Structure formats: structure tokens, C-alpha cells
């Protein structure tokens, strides 16, 4: 069985940094971030880790 991790964010860089190392990425087949248009570096953080980000803007 394959597993996917979907992360929803909006200006959560501090929370993302605190939790990122705790996520066992080796046990996840794919990861996707859906972001609400963060301006605090959240998007860039995930992109730097080669995790795809979909940015939703209203």
C-alpha cells in the first residue's frame, strides 16, 4: 500500500520547522503541500526540500 502526506499551511514557517524533522519522510511515498499564499518563507522552505507546493490564492 502506498501512502501520501498532504500538508495544509498558511504562514506556518515556525511550526513547519519544528515538526519537519519529526515526519518520517522515508515512510511516505509522496508529499504535497497546499499553501494559502504564505509570506513568511513557508513556501520557500518546502521548495528547498524538493516538496511540491500548490499555492492557492483568493
Written overview of the protein:
The chain has one domain. Helices cover 26% and strands 26% of the residues. It has 2 helices and 3 strands, in the order βαβαβ. It has a 3-stranded parallel β-sheet, with helices on one face. Helix 1 links the parallel strand 1 and strand 2. It is globular and about 35 Å long.
Descriptive labels:
58 residues; alpha/beta; three-stranded parallel sheet; 2 helices
* Arrangement of strands in the largest sheet: 1-2-3
How far apart lie the N and C ends? 35 Å
Helix content: 25-40%
Largest beta-sheet characterization: 3 strands, parallel
Q: Mean pLDDT score, rounded?
A: 93
Q: Report the count of strand segments.
A: 3
Brief overview:
26% of the residues lie in helices and 26% in strands.
Amino acid at each position: 500500500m502506498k501512502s501520501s502526506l498532504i500538508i495544509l499551511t498558511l504562514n506556518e514557517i515556525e511550526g513547519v520547522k519544528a515538526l519537519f524533522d519529526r515526519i518520517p519522510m522515508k515512510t511516505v511515498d509522496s508529499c504535497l503541500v497546499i499553501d494559502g499564499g504564505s509570506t513568511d518563507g513557508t513556501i520557500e522552505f518546502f521548495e528547498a526540500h524538493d516538496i511540491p507546493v500548490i499555492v492557492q490564492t483568493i
